[in-house]
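Lab notebook page, bench 4
Experiment: in silico fold of construct C2
Operator: M.H.
Input chain length: 159 residues
Purpose: comparison with the prior construct
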Amino acid sequence: MSIVPLSEAKAHLRLEPDFPDAQLAGKLAAAEQRAAHFINRAIFASDTDLQTAIAAVPQQLADAGTAFRAALEAAAALPDQDAALLMKDAAWRAYTAAITAARETASGIVATEDIKAAILLTLGHLFNNVSDVEVGTIVTPMDYGAQYLLMPHRIGWGG
């Protein structure tokens, strides 16, 4: 479920209501994902969504642990030690990714107005800029941009 409805995103970008959703949905998802990565927390549209996700965390961790142990056993059975090491590494990366996702969900947050504003600022940048650089213009970043809005909600220093 999107944090910012497409209709609100279209209004923010001053697009016509009949602008194709498919041309905007990916950029909106990327903006929402970037906000979540920056604050190292999952962002939810409602408290119900947050509580449902948190309730699923213990089972997700148990499943990840089971998969990790099974992958280690499968790797140990391989005769090729290089292949076994690759399998163990892949298993470890999958397990740590599951732990990170669980941590981000357990410390999740319901989207506040400043989080939504940061998402919309990022969306505007993604929508209006089709490349990483712009030649021939002077560009000045906003003093109070998306990171400024997200900083109070950030936990940890990753991302």
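Observations: The chain has a mean pLDDT of 93. The beta strands are 43-44, 109-110.
Next step: discuss at group meeting.
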